[in-house]
Amino acid sequence: MNNKNKKLVPADDKNAVSSYFSILSFLYLCLVSSLVDANTVTTLQLTSSDLSVNGYAYSGNGRRVVYVSRANLTGQNPEGNSQVYLVDANGAGLRQLTDLASADSAGDIFISEDGNIVVAKITTLVGAADFQESILAINVQSGENRWLVPGSSRVLNLHALSPNGEFTVYSYYQTPGTAGKVVRSVSTTGSYDNEITTYDASSLLFFSADTSTFIYNTNGVIYAVDVTGNRGWINNTNRVMEWTATSGAYAQATGISENGDKIAFYTNYDFTIGAVANFDDIYMVNTDGSGFARITHHNSNGDSNFPYFLQGSNKLLFPSDANINGENPNANSNLYIYDIVNKSISQVTNFSEGYIAFNHTASKYQNRIVYAKSVTVYDYNTYLNSFDGANEVIVNVESESSSGIMSLNGKGFVFRSEKDILGANADGSVELFIRCENEDNIDNACTALLTSGENSDETGGGGAFSLAFLLLVQLIFYGRITSKLRPASYL
136-172: per-residue pLDDT in tens? Predict the structure, then answer.
């Protein structure tokens, strides 16, 4: 095509084009800046009294917090008895859920993901020295209180509540003074109470997130137990792993996958050589006994232990003082993530002193983890971070409390602290705090949790809309500008 006679844009229009792009670049920078600043963070003190908060739980949808206190918070507890309280994530809607007597004391406590079912262990003094223990279920919506397990002189432990609030799992000594414990599941509506298995009372139980399975180990054997009875195991129990009892050998299964099909454990027993090794290493195996795999191979230069499955991902989180990737030559305690699919290990933290506390955890849908590092013998700093370690935020400084509970979407985090974080805890009592994040630029990010989608994996819809709008504006400007740059015959 002969373009000799085509008219191009005059010089003045070229200057206009340059101005268009300058203005657009300025608007782009302003918008990006506003998107970064729009991530509102709010920290609230949920409790305030001279009586410390005891047990607490946080609903998975991020909307409700339940806790135990002897304070007279609503005017209904003038005697100062141990009571169960409920409060919304934004600090509103405080309710006293129980009316316990002076002889009663609430202990272990759980809340369902939707915040509608609460279960608590209640200990009642009988006479001067004896006591009874029972389980109370509370329907937050209807206000109904139901005693699930009658008072018993047996020592009782409340272990877990299913995410949907349908059933809870508890255990008690089969015969007082013996090592055996009976594990049972009971419906929160009282429709059934089933025996699951017996186990060595000295063992720790770790439950899958869906409460379908739990694990424990004793005498060199790791057991997986089916709570629902759907796996077809004999007596609901499967011997997952066992090894020759060797002097000095130990093992602990601490990780179980979300649906209960995999176990992670650490041990100083080297299965390759069939003997005790110098340090701890981490292994993984399916609960049916298949798929045995060694995760770490550093038993000559440090311990790797306490593995934890990250919900919603094929990853394991664990602390180690080994020089796994060549980035920890001074053997400091740091956190690592093992990618089960890619079989790779990445270092999350880079601490030069202190040690990682065991109770590290994570949100399910936002790739966020929680961990604490010791700063003195009794004090810890608590952190939130992303899986890649690039977004570390400290939320509790030099506190005796080293843990917290995160909502499933990672936007709410509840923790205890005796520190005067917001200027309202001068007496140093142990109070509950909540830290909330929201993409919308609002005054109280915790209020947004009350209307956020349950089990949401949202990553910032407002930001995505703004970026889409920006692209649209760019296309419009680009279309108008390039139309001026085209030869006249194209117009």
Answer: 999 999 999 999 987 666 678 999 999 999 999 999 8
CB contact set of 144 (below 8 Å; sequence gap of 6+)? 138
Residue 78's Cβ-count burial label (10 Å; 0-12, 13-18, 19+) is: exposed
Q: Are 118 and 72 in contact (CB under 8 A)?
A: no
CB 393 within 8 A of CB 374: no
Token duo for residue 374? 């010791």
Burial of 216 (0-12, 13-18, 19+ CB in 10 A): buried
Taken in order 116, 117, 118, 122, the sign of the CA dihedral is positive
Six-digit token string for 401: 């409390």
Q: What is the mean pLDDT of the chain?
A: 81
User: Quick one: how many helices (H) and strands (E) in the chain?
Assistant: 3, 32
CA 440-87-185 angle, to 5 degrees, is: 110
Rounded Cα distance between 388 and 347, Å, is 8
| Type of residue at 432 | L
List Cβ neighbours of 23 (8 Å cut-off, separation of 6 or more): none
- Indicate the DSSP class of residue 472: H
The residue among 435, 452, 296 whose CA lies nearest residue 368 is 435
Nearest to 292 by CA among 342, 336, 333, 243: 243
Q: H/E element holding 462?
A: helix 461-485
Contacts 24+ apart (CB under 8 A), 120-127: 120/55, 120/68, 120/84, 120/158, 121/156, 121/157, 121/158, 121/170, 124/151, 126/153
Contact 291, 285 (CB under 8 A): yes
Say which DSSP state 271 is in. Answer: T
Average pLDDT (396-411) is 90
φ/ψ of 54, rounded to 5, equals: -95, -115
SS (H, E, C) 93-132: CCEECCCCCCCEEEEEEEECCCCCEEEEEEEEEECCCEEE
Instruction: Categorize the per-residue pLDDT at 364 as very low, low, confident or very high, splitting at 50, 70 and 90.
Output: confident
Tell me the Cα Rg of the chain.
28
Is 229 a residue whose pLDDT tops 50?
yes
Q: Give the model's pLDDT for residue 455.
A: 42
d(CA 119, CA 162): 11
